[in-house]
Specification:
alpha/beta, Rossmann fold, 60s Ribosomal Protein L30, Chain: A, 4 domains, seven-stranded parallel beta sheet, six-stranded mixed beta sheet, 17 helices, binds nicotinamide-adenine-dinucleotide, binds 3-phosphoglyceric acid, amino-acid biosynthesis, ACT-like_dom_sf, D-3-phosphoglycerate dehydrogenase
């Protein structure tokens, strides 16, 4: 069945065409985005949801999204998506981090000019027939200082445009390296220095707990008299009430806002001030940017739904379209190894070491590690998936270590997973043969070769004659059919392991009877 995608926001038509060309069924219903009730009713029918900022993908929507595999944001900000809930449910959230950056930086520069020359006010006055030449005396921006708060993709483009306009650019961004600042030609400063020196301040950070009200009342008080403030990033970065007061007192000379604490902003404390310029979240709204993000998000979502390739996901490591088919059998092996170890572990897990050897060590092992952790945690946490597993392991204090060795041993590729508990370390290893099917090749240091089926019987025993016959007879007497039988031992007469695939689920009573056989140490039914 072809995957189905819902576009619930005003995306460029280009996205619809891409989905169709790739054989994906698509419903383009931009009116559903703002209608939470209707969206909740419909979301259960779709594998993919493509959005901009008008669709709020809340916990409630996600709870009804039983088929949903991917949410694609045609744009940058994903603060309208409940990512932890999506993660719990195994839904990938992806965005298009660069497609609208230039356009948004240009909007910030446009707003800076609008403030410097009061263009919207002068336009309104002129068209009202007033010709107020003396009222609109502006300020030249050449030689002025622009303070950039958040010098990432958009902030750095805005900085480069401002440098081109012969401004001096200073930037506050704790994650901006000295090398990058040098390369951009900006001076790295702390926030207080930026506030004290900037003639214009432009904000380009995401809205986080750290950046909320980064321009607070106190911060605004530290700015230079007459400063002009531009916000094209997110509402909530500036205390709007405090800014209004600073505008009223004349301390702040002007403010140009594209984003607001509450959107759509039908009313706002900034509205009506003569030195305020507002646009309705237009930062990304150019034909070029909208085509970029729509095309990109549709391609990314189609790649994921059709081939398992992951690009620009916020809750999953990337997998390219080329590597996706190659990784698939290894993902299965890693999950089986994790599940094997998880089902045998009864005490709390402290750590997990995953060793990749041979060919597989040269692959993108991040998804394999996620699969191994998923398998390991599933016996304890039913709802875990490849997307949520790394977060869940971290939350439970399970330290995950990846080791890669490119040299080959006896196998072309080899994955060994070691679970570390308070009491012991237990390892299980496997490989993928050229038939693309995973095999278990070592359990607790004992070599064997077993393919895992849905119902497995795991028995550890002392290597003594007669054991296999007794076990076979017992299973036969109770009508349990053996599909495959793999054996291994440390040495003659030493520890031995039997891994047997049976056609039916094993009852508790059956397991007890096997446990009672001579020389048996441990018996476990494993499900895969
Ligand atoms: N108005 C619009 O239509 C529009 C369009 C596109 C993007 N945006 C918004 O613009 C913002 C920036 O987007 P981007 O693509 O440049 O993001 P980005 O991730 O490339 O850059 C953000 C920068 O903020 C910095 N930062 C993080 N925390 C900080 C802090 N506490 N103090 C200072 N700097 C901090 C980061 O180090 C990073 O360099 C986002 O919020 C995005 O949603 C708005
Ligand atoms: O984060 C973004 O990409 C911008 O805020 C654009 O939002 P929009 O797609 O709703 O215009």
């Amino acid at each position: 069945m072809a995957p189905r995608v819902l576009i619930s926001d005003k995306l460029s038509d280009a996205a619809v065409q891409i989905f169709r060309d790739r054989g994906i069924e698509v419903d383009f219903e931009p009116e559903l985005g703002p209608d939470k009730e209707k969206l909740a009713e419909r979301i259960g029918d779709y594998d993919g949801l493509a959005i901009r900022s008008a669709t709020k993908v809340t916990e409630k929507i996600i709870a009804r999204a039983d088929r949903l595999k991917v949410i694609g944001r045609a744009g940058i900000g994903v603060d309208n998506v409940d990512i932890p809930e999506a993660t719990k449910k195994g839904i990938i959230v992806m965005n298009t981090p660069f497609g609208n950056s230039i356009t948004t930086a240009e909007h910030a520069i446009a707003l800076m000019f609008a403030l410097a020359r009061q263009i919207p006010q002068a336009d309104a006055s002129t068209q009202a027939g007033k010709w107020e030449k003396n009222r609109f005396v502006g300020t030249e921006i050449t030689g002025k200082t622009l303070g950039v708060v958040g010098c990432g993709n958009i902030g750095s483009i805005a900085a480069s445009r401002a440098i081109g306009l012969r401004m001096k650019v200073i930037a506050f961004d704790p994650f901006l390296s000295d090398e990058r600042a040098l390369e951009l030609g900006v001076e790295k400063v702390d926030l207080d220095a930026l506030l004290a020196r900037a003639d214009f301040i432009t904000l380009h950070t995401p809205l986080t707990d750290k950046t909320r009200n980064i321009l607070s009342r106190e911060a605004l008080a530290k700015t230079k008299k007459g400063v002009r403030i531009i916000n094209c990033a997110r509402g909530g970065l500036v205390d709007e009430t405090a800014l209004r007061e600073a505008l009223d007192s004349g301390h702040v000379g002007g403010a140009a806002f594209d984003v607001f604490v509450e959107e759509p902003a039908k009313e706002n404390v900034l509205f009506g001030h003569p030195n305020v310029v507002c646009t309705p979240h237009l930062g990304a709204s150019t034909k070029e940017a909208q085509e970029n993000v729509a095309l990109q998000v549709a391609e990314q979502m189609a790649d994921y739904l059709l081939n398992g390739a992951v690009t620009n996901a916020l809750n999953m490591p990337s997998i390219t379209a080329e590597e996706a088919p190659r990784l698939t059998p290894f993902v299965k092996l890693a999950e089986q190894l994790g599940s094997f170890a998880g089902q045998l572990t009864e005490t709390s897990i402290r750590g997990l070491r995953i060793e990749y050897e041979g060919d597989v060590a040269e692959m993108n092992v991040k998804p394999l590690t996620s699969a191994a952790v998923t398998g390991l945690l599933r016996p304890m946490l039913q709802d875990v998936n490849m997307i949520s597993a790394p977060v869940m392991a971290r939350e439970r204090g399970i330290h995950v270590e990846e080791v890669r060795r490119e040299q080959q041993g006896a196998y072309e590729n080899y994955i060994r997973l070691t679970v570390i508990t308070e009491r012991q370390e237990r390892s299980v290893a496997g490989t993928v043969f050229s038939d693309g099917r995973p095999r278990i090749i070592q359990v607790k240091g004992i070599n064997m070769e077993a393919e895992l089926g849905p119902h497995m019987l795991y028995v550890t025993n002392e290597d003594k004659p007669g054991f296999i016959g007794r076990l076979g007879t017992l299973l036969g007497q109770t009508d349990v059919n053996i599909a495959t039988f793999a054996l291994g031992r440390l040495e003659r007469g030493g520890d031995a392991i039997a891994l047997i695939e049976v056609d039916t689920e094993l009852s508790e009573g059956m397991l007890k009877e096997i446990e009672a056989l001579p020389n048996v140490r441990q018996v476990k039914a494993l499900e895969f």
